[in-house]
Amino acid sequence: MSPPIDLGMLDGKIGYCISKFGMTLIAHGLGQELKGTGVACNSLWPATLIESTATMNFQAGERSLWRKAAIVADCCLMIVKEDPNELTGNALIDEDFMKTRGISDFIKYRCDPDSEPPRISGEDWKSFDAGIVPEQKAKL
Question: Given this model, what pLDDT does residue 75 score?
Answer without folding.
Answer: 98
